[in-house]
Amino acid sequence: MPYGPRIDISTTSLPREVQAIRHAIALALKADDPQRPGQTLGQARAGVYAFYDFDGEPIYVGQTAEGFGIRIGRHLTGQRSDAVARHVLDPFEVHTVSMWSLPEIGDLPYKERKAALDPYGFTVYQKLLRESTFGAILNEGDFHPGPPQELPAPVVRIIVPDDIFPDRSHPDVRIARQARTISLLASSVTERRVSAGARRTLATQTARLNALIQRRFEALDRRSEAPEGLDDFAPEDSFAEPDYLSEFYDSDEFSDFDE
């Protein structure tokens, strides 16, 4: 039996990658809230947030009357989130989070916060549409139209640590993940009566995937995709028959198996 690290089948720890990202999210929520000195963003009770992918593309915008800690946690740490459950948003694609804290709305009674947040959410939504290469983001639901609002400067935090970035951002990994998300979303469209917004999200996801595939193809410049250091690697040689097997197959012993 080969020697090496043993699997700890009884471990209760999360995978290190998941721990690192959760730690980065926790640090982001511990950042000072510039709109209310003495308060962290995790303590803010109302605001708008946006997610960006590894290309810097805006992919999702949300608003919270509960607090950034609760809402962002639902999306990105495996807790309940309609956007994730419906395959609208893949947390794997989120690289950066922007947060606009609105303490004056957080001071309102809870039942009054959503209506007060709507014009701010709509303002950020329109802002992200203008910034998007595709003129669209992944939100399934529509924001209530309202007059443009003056927004404070957002707090922007990267939630993917540098040591994880190469694996998470690898274009082939992202292509596979996005294709899987599209497949799941398309399947859900066949299984339930969906809104026009869900079909719009499917179209946006598909446009993002096609663009990434095209960029990947063009970046390779139609060259061989052999791994670095294996430029002389010939796939057919890897399955070449060893000499000792050739001798065995030609022997009388092997011919007995055919009888």
Quick synopsis:
The chain is an alpha+beta fold. 46% of the residues lie in helices and 9% in strands.
What's the structural blueprint in terms of helices and strands?
Layout lengths: L15 H14 L17 E6 L5 E7 L3 H9 L5 H4 L10 E6 L1 H4 L3 H22 L23 E4 L6 H5 L1 H21 L4 H25 L14 H4 L4 H7 L2 H4 L4
Antiparallel strand pairs: 1-2, 1-3, 3-4
Helix pairs in contact: 1-2, 7-8
Shape: globular
Q: What do the pLDDT scores average to?
A: 86
Strand content: 5-15%
Which stretches are low in confidence, meaning pLDDT under 50 for 5 or more residues running? none
Tell me the series of helices and strands, N- to C-terminal. HEEHHEHHEHHHHHH
What distance lies between the first and last C-alpha atoms, to the nearest angstrom? 36 Å
The counted number of beta strands is 4
Structural class, from secondary structure content? Answer: alpha+beta
Largest sheet: 4 strands, antiparallel
What topology, given as strand order, has the largest sheet?
2-1-3-4
Fraction of helical residues: 40-55%
- For the CA atoms, what is the radius of gyration? 25 Å
The helix tally amounts to 11
